[in-house]
Automatic annotation (TrEMBL):
Tree of life domain: Bacteria
Keyword Coiled coil applies: yes
Lineage: Bacteria, Pseudomonadati, Verrucomicrobiota, Opitutia, Puniceicoccales
Keywords, comma-separated and alphabetical: Coiled coil
Species: Pelagicoccus enzymogenes
Keyword flag Ion transport: no
Protein name, per record: DUF480 domain-containing protein
Family: Belongs to the UPF0502 family.
Pfam families: DUF480
Coiled coil: 205-232
């Protein structure tokens, strides 16, 4: 990593940010279906509630984001003997072991962007209980005081009393962009997924594609042999 990036991995993209936030959230709110299947994760990423911005991600976008997160050691593919369906979980502890209250705060910031302590206390309640605002601020302070800070306090907006906080897994905050008034729109954001994957990931995908092609060819050959065998008795 460069001197400008203190993270032990490259900054997260918008898609990666949404995926990681969803995995942390669903572990806390729906443990009975966690780890998540790809379909469940796509639905979680595209939720219209508790998300800002609202996204429209397809399987390809989420799969690519998962592969990149796995390369960054922030997500894992889980193999379960009782199920043939691939499932995924976060592996935040590889880089950032956090107690539940701080993981909840990080998840909300990943899912919704900058928020005040009051907003975070209300929205985190479904994942972790905070006795009062002081308890919330104490956890935020700990996230900011880490050797690798995960949260930063933003300058107060004009006319606003409370400061907002932002997560730093996506890299340094662009204060100029935050100062620009956002256009209000309820339309979901469509994301271009033409991202560059690490060479290791590209090689793994290419190998999987080759295996699938070989299996498809073998199945086609078996079908031809079966058809020829049946024709002998017609």
């Amino acid at each position: 990593m460069s001197d400008e990036n203190p993270l032990p991995h490259d900054p997260l993209s918008l898609v990666e940010t949404r995926i990681l936030g969803c995995l942390i959230e669903k572990e806390a709110t729906t443990p009975d279906i966690y780890p998540l299947t790809l379909n469940s994760l796509v639905n979680a990423c595209n939720q219209k509630s508790n998300r800002a911005p609202v996204l429209e991600l397809d399987d390809e976008a989420v799969s690519a984001g998962l592969e990149s997160l796995r390369h960054k050691r922030l997500a894992l593919l889980v193999t379960q003997t009782a199920s043939r369906v691939a499932k995924f979980k976060h592996s935040l502890d590889n880089h950032y072991p956090l107690p539940n209250p701080q993981a909840a705060i990080l998840a909300e910031l990943l899912l919704r962007g900058p928020q005040t302590a009051g907003e975070l206390r209300t929205r985190c309640e479904r994942m972790s209980h905070f006795e009062d605002l002081d308890a919330m601020r104490d956890e935020i302070e700990q996230l900011m005081a880490r050797a690798t800070p995960l949260v930063v306090e933003l300058p107060r907006q004009p006319g606003k009393k409370d400061a907002r906080y932002a997560q730093l897994l996506s890299g340094p905050i662009d204060l100029e962009a935050l100062a620009t008034p956002a256009t209000s729109s309820s339309a979901p954001v469509k994301v271009d997924v033409s991202m560059t994957l690490p060479a290791e990931a590209e090689a793994r995908i290419a190998a999987l594609e080759t295996t699938v092609a070989e299996q498809a060819s073998a199945i086609a050959a078996l079908r031809e042999e079966l058809a020829a065998f049946r024709s002998q008795f017609e």
